User: Fold this.
Amino acid sequence: MEWNVQTLSLLSIPLISALVGWITNYLAVKMMFYPLEFVGIPPIFGWQGLIPAKRRQMAEIEVELVLGKLLSVEELAGRLDPRELTNAIEHRLQQVVRKIVNEVMEESAPQLWAALPVQGKNLVYRRIEDDIPYVVSKMVEDFQHNVNEILDIKELVVEQLVNSPELINEIFLRSGEREFPFIVRSGFYFGFLFGLPTMALWYLYQAWWILPLGGLLVGYATNWIAIKIIFEPKRPVRFMGCTIQGMFLKRQKEVSRVYADIIETKLINSKNITHMILHGSGSAQLLELIELHVNDAIERYVAIAQPYFALGVGSENYFKMKSMAVRRLFEDSDKYLLYAFDYANQALRVGDDLCERLQALRSEEFEGVLRPAYQQDEWKLIITGALLGMAAGVAQLYLLMLG
Assistant:
């Protein structure tokens, strides 16, 4: 009976090593992504997922990858057709402009506007509405020429990812949806294999340090090997009739599609771009552009009846009227620009173009999609796995001694 207990205890060593490998790798993957915010006593006692903790650096890397090498703001802006954009928003813009005209005139020239018959007001509306396509087209062209001053894509992406740590997690989890489960599973297999020499050594020489050391090596090696298998070798290598390449790099076409879709649907889309244009650091430049074209339009409208209009409004109210019109058109821009979202998304073609260009990257460049931002902290995961493995080895030693 004693021999059976000893044999079972001995055979349990590789099984426990396999379990240790699985647990340490499982925890390593979880620790990459969770918790989203720091838990504990900062800055040392506690933990935050490596990726959420470095989301600003990662966001900047994403911007450099996507816009530094693959797409440019000028290229995206150049895809917008002023006529198509005008057609998309024209009906709603006409409604908004009518309301703005009423409010501006009632504020700056109430008596003149009240005295104007309905036919006269309709003539004003029609004159402005006929001019809308021209004004919008000129504004779009000026936007395209000055896009770098008005739209900061880096600010857009960084702001989105910093404010939404779950989004940066989604990018990595979905891009590596096969690799991360492999890391967990491989811990079991490699843990079992590494447990075999530990079992043999324990059978021959039962020193107290063998099991803790074996656990430490299992925890360390399973994490290290799993990460290496995902990213190495970078280029396909023929070995004994088989082609070997890092798992993530081998799936470049598939990952490119997933990654590009996330970038398009969650980050660089017409809704987010519009929000950044209106509320980001370049909004003042957009306001100046609107002011330039609205003032020019008003001057053309007024020129038709300049003497009558000047007498009815006065120079002070005239400038006030132009300022109000510009401000209201800018403030109400959300109400008509949202009608351009569908057209703009189709015109920008962010997802398809980004996917195609990601697929064309060399393996060394493509690795930059998933790895560089947290690569410098991989040692934390490996060391944590080693310490957990050593702790499991100590527990296993204690149980064997009791037996």
About this structure: Residues 2-402 form one domain.
